[in-house]
Amino acid sequence: MKARPNQRLSSQAMAFVLAGGRGSRLKELTDRRAKPAVYFGGKTRIIDFALSNAVNSGIRKMAIATQYKAHSLIRHMQRGWNFFRAERNEYLDILPASQRVDETKWYLGTADAVTQNIDIVDSYGVKYIIILAGDHIYKMDYEIMLMQHAATGADVTIGCLTVPKEEASAFGVMHVDSTGRITDFLEKPAVPPTIPGDPANSLASMGIYVFDWAFLRDLLIRDAEDPNSSHDFGNDIIPQIVKHGKAMAHRFAESCVTSGLEDEPYWRDVGTIDAFWQANIDLTEFVPKLDLYDNSWPIWTYAELVPPAKFIHDEDGRRGSAISSLISGDCIVSGSEVRNSLLFTGGRTHSYAALDHVVALPYVDVGRYADLSRCVIDRGVRIPEKLVVGQDPVEDAKWFRCSEGGIVLITQDMLDARARALG
């Protein structure tokens, strides 16, 4: 693509979103859906954050590679992300692993997911490609990262988080020189290298990579022919460039989008039950760490046509109320008390029920006199009358999934098994 004067780099780029992972640490929440399709924040899905960042950054060409239990994700894309118009040179392709290259080959790794779709990326006619993970929560202007990539002449520019040294062992860590050039890439090192001039912190990979497409295309073709490669960006492609080419680090703080209310750059991997619960509950704080109310950087999603939330009954012990909570459309809080909780679309809470620090996914129905705290409830679950969760860890563990942090995950299958056992 030949650039025009004053043309934004994002208009010459495409976003390739890797959304095929299961997210097994989310346990039963990913039994029916891939991790990027898991609900978050009242009305969105996890993948909406990466896609919204791309749209808000000016990128109008996207591809989403799917693999594990992709139907829920594909349906969400079709319903919520169908506003791209080819006549405006806008495209969004959904790329399931479909044996396009070989009848026996699914996507073998993150790099292979791009390799198998080289012809589709070629058809976009782009100069740059941004590889994104579809399973993190953050707001970021990719145009700023593209500008750094072009200015430094890097072979790859890698988005990096600044994390305390003692936490860095959970990530791929960058060793950089004073110019930001990456001199070593270490996967989950026991002794992480620190940032020059900042011995308390390390640079961890966000799984966001910017390449010139022509450069990456050649590299992927060579990698596909290497029988010793696992065909993965983190394991194969990135270490090779660090060793033989020019890899530059881009610090998230330089392109993180804030409304002025956030006190630090916000990025979360909600890949465990504890992290998922905490990130959702954080949104109920008086000043949340992530501002979802910033209309200058909207999080796009499928906007369901539903009626407003409703609160009914007003008598002692039976008052429909919600304190420090997010209540989505089509919820009816009927004579029950909701505190520090998040109810997704279509929730119902019936008289005398109490919810405290609860994350209830869409269309959850909470029966009368139920008393729930510190739990995550999967979509469509019907909580029986008088169920108590969150007070007796031993009793909770008999029927439900209990996390290391003491969060209880409730699914309909678990409740059905409990009902059978109790007769």
Written description of the protein model:
A hairpin with a 5-residue loop joins strand 28 and strand 29 (408-410). The longest helix is centred in the middle third of the chain and has 12 residues, at 213-224. The relative contact order is 0.12. The protein folds into two domains: 9-284, Spore Coat Polysaccharide Biosynthesis Protein SpsA, Chain A; 310-422, Hexapeptide repeat proteins (UDP N-Acetylglucosamine Acyltransferase, domain 1), CATH 2.160.10. The protein starts with 12 loop residues before the first strand and ends with a helix. The chain has 423 residues and is of the alpha/beta class. The protein has helices at 47-56, 71-80, 110-115, 118-124, 142-152, 213-224, 233-244, 273-282, 393-399, 412-422; strands at residues 13-18, 39-40, 44-45, 61-66, 91-96, 128-133, 137-138, 156-164, 172-176, 182-187, 201-212, 247-251, 267-268, 310-312, 314-315, 318-319, 321-323, 326-327, 332-334, 337-339, 342-343, 348-349, 354-360, 365-366, 371-377, 382-383, 388-389, 401-402, 408-410. It contains ten helices and 29 strands. The chain is globular and about 70 Å long. Helices cover 23% and strands 27% of the residues. Strands 1, 4, 5, 6, 8, 9, 10, 11 and 12 form a nine-stranded mixed beta sheet that branches.
The first-level CATH class name of the largest domain: Alpha Beta
Question: What's the total count of β strands?
Answer: 29
Shape type: globular
What gap, in angstroms, lies between the N and C termini? 68 Å
Number of helices: 10
Q: What is the CATH topology descriptor of the largest domain?
A: Spore Coat Polysaccharide Biosynthesis Protein SpsA, Chain A
Per CATH, which architecture of the largest domain?
Alpha-Beta Complex
EC number: 2.7.7.27
Subunit structure: Homotetramer.
Domain Glucose-1-phosphate adenylyltransferase/Bifunctional protein GlmU-like C-terminal hexapeptide: 307-410
Pathway: Glycan biosynthesis; glycogen biosynthesis
